[in-house]
Amino acid sequence: MEKFSEIKYVRPDGEQLISSICKGAEKLHESKNFEEAKAVFWKIQEEKKRFETMASLAHVRNTMDTQDDFYEREMEYFFRVQPKIQVEMKKVHEALLESKFSDDFRQELGSLYLQQIRGNIRLTDECNVELQIKESMLTQEYSKIAAAPITEFYGEELNFYGLLKKMQSHDRKIRKEALGAWADMYESISEKLDDIYSKLMKIRLQMAENLGFSSYEEMIFVKMGRYTYTPEDLKVFRKQVCDYVVPVCQKLFEEQKERLGIPKLHYYDEAIVFADGNAMPIGTTNELLEKAGKMYHELSKETGIFFDFMLKYELFDLETRPGKHQGGYCTTFPEYQAPFIFSNFNGTDADIDVLTHEAGHSFEAFEAMRRIPLTEQTFSTSEVAEIHSMSMEFFTYPWMELFFGENADKYRKSHTWSALECIPYMACVDEFQHRVYEEKMFDGIKRRKVWSELEKKYLPWRDYDGNKFLEQGGFWMQKQHIFMDPFYYIDYALARFGSLEYYGHMMQDFEEAWKDYYHLCCAGGSKSYPELLKIGNLSNPLKEGTVQKIMESIEEYL
User: Fold this and answer.
1) Displacement of CA 231 from its chain's centroid (Å)
2) Domain tally for the chain?
3) In a domain? residue 85
4) Domain-embedded: residue 437
5) Is the dihedral of CA 153, 157, 160, 161 positive or negative?
6) How confident is the model at residue 161 (pLDDT cuts 50, 70, 90)?
């Protein structure tokens, strides 16, 4: 493999792949024995792997610079051709299920894979191809609009991430002004974002209707592989969050207010955990990576090998800059069995959160890709995939002195509190999405009212200090998952309980907890959600009583 910067991008021939898949479906029907059928199936998988690698490469380079016209056009190409590939793959999946060798395939690929392709068959139809293209183009437009705003703040040209750093200033006046500037930037693009979101909703609802689903909610559960639980189960889970997590968070924020010595905690104070300032990472990006290398070598042999690979092939893009896509993510280049970490460092403790979080995803992908031949099962469903990432944040606690020096304990405390305090927000995002899709809420003002109502339920401590845009419910717009990955965000909350459970386990027996975590990573997405929880020695947060039990188990560490 070459270093990331040296990997040559070549647009893959989508039409050729479509033709090859079509012929493969015919050959599956005609296969005289299982060995012949199996060879056809794996040939298709290899051809798709090359295509997906180039698609992933184009995506990364597009997000590195959303103003780059070349990669924007390349992403438009993939948006147009990928739905057509899915339609052809439907024929392959149908041929596999109808094959006289279907039992042999079940033995070869596992029953979960066959369940997944049944779901893909139900989700795929030519009638939705143009709608899928439109959806992808709209999310691309959203990314570009959200990445564009720049404002002058105390003589600096800052984007959203730059302002978030200013919202951790020791000077409360600067924090308030930074929040105002941040909100103003979102308000300046709010009409465009409202319009995009309404269009996305209409497209998604139409796709669900075209496929015969009773609701978009039902469709998304199939799409996300949620075969073992229902929307009703999530309602019960969100109630448990309200009952057992929200009161603890209220108490933590009250304690924070006392530590800061302020009469009222406003939103721009929430990120300031200690009166003398939060722990800040020490060193440049390259120095932080060097420290991370030392940490991962000491954590385990496997994480050391993984991180050396990431460094050798320069599989990081970490620093924020104008025009760069917001947020952080991990993706993979299947042909090279290589993960990639994307982030927006801004000089705060969040940089370390992201580095360990995305490293958790990447480590899992690195291990799973070397054990599981099916690309589709490199990652599990997101309720487990986020356990990989969030748990890595906790498993790296013993090495935080490398990044924060004498302030390492401050970081560990604030991170643990934050891990809890974000759960109600995740539940809030989830209920918001259920509401707006169920009620077909195309009116932007109504959506803001709903968000404002839900904030009072899940985030009763939240106070925007008179900022009209945010008080009227504009805050939801900053969550890109709502636009790009509908109904995904609750998975973070489910997974957070897995990570908190590992935190409790590691405080009792670090080595045993790590072994359980490693086994979970190696399993990738080869098993169902409940089966993977068992492999990882974890409880199911959807079961009544689990949330309460985990909250009690970590109480002494808060």
Assistant:
1) 20
2) 1
3) yes
4) no
5) negative
6) confident
